[in-house]
Amino acid sequence: MSRIATFFIAVLLLFSEVPVSFAQQNPIQAQAKADAIRDADHDMKKAWWFMSGLVSSSVGCAAGGIGGCLFGMFIDAGSDTNCIGSDRAMLSCSILFGVLAVPAAVFILPHNPNPPLERLLGKPPEYIEVYLQTYRSKTVSLRKRLVTAGSLTSNLCMGAMLLLDNMTNR
User: Fold this and answer.
1) How many helices (H) and strands (E) does the chain have?
2) How many CA atoms lie within 13 A of 64 on its CB side?
3) Which residues contact 132 (CB under 8 A, 6 or more apart)?
4) Beta-carbon neighbour count of residue 45 at 10 Å?
5) pLDDT means per 10 residues in the chain (170 residues)?
6) Is the overall model pTM greater than 0.85, yes or no?
7) Hey, how many other C-beta atoms are within 10 angstroms of the C-beta on 41?
8) 154 and 61 Cβ atoms separated by less than 8 Å
9) How far is 114 from 69, CA to CA, in rounded Å?
10) Measured between alpha carbons, how far is residue 53 from residues 1, 17, 83, 138, 145 in Å?
């Protein structure tokens, strides 16, 4: 029984200093995280990032539609059909290129956000480190989310337009 009590006393003594040191640093880090998240939300040009996903995916869908049309014409070169005869190739290539534009738009667009340096003047080094790390991760996360939402919106609209066009031409 005495060994168990000694073990618990040793564990308490060993770990009693850790919460004190964390408690001293925690308010600075917590404040840095809160400031970084607030500033990242405030600095984000949400409409611009949503529109960049929308436009890049629309361009991908249009390029896929043109590619599918040309591919369909190339396959049907011996027949008398034109681009309208290759609806399935156009539809499938359009959707494929539009879907492929989502990762391209998300990962090719620049993701190196830097906050204004005026916000960090006079702050302690641990505050600056936590602030920069949190600001960058929050900004990149918001950008990826907005670009993906724009791309998916574009894909759904283009897919609906192509399907409606395909159904009305039958």
Assistant:
1) 5, 0
2) 24
3) 36, 115, 120
4) 11
5) 68 56 68 91 88 81 72 61 57 69 65 83 91 91 86 81 73
6) no
7) 12
8) yes
9) 43
10) 66, 50, 28, 18, 10
Structure tokens at 147: 């670009």
One DSSP character per residue, 6-49 reads: HHHHHHHHHHSHHHHHHHHHHHHHHHHHHHHHHHHHHH--HHHH
Contacts 24+ apart (CB under 8 A), 123-130: 123/32, 124/28, 126/25, 126/28, 126/29, 126/32, 127/28, 127/29, 127/31, 127/32, 128/32, 130/28, 130/29, 130/32, 130/33, 130/36
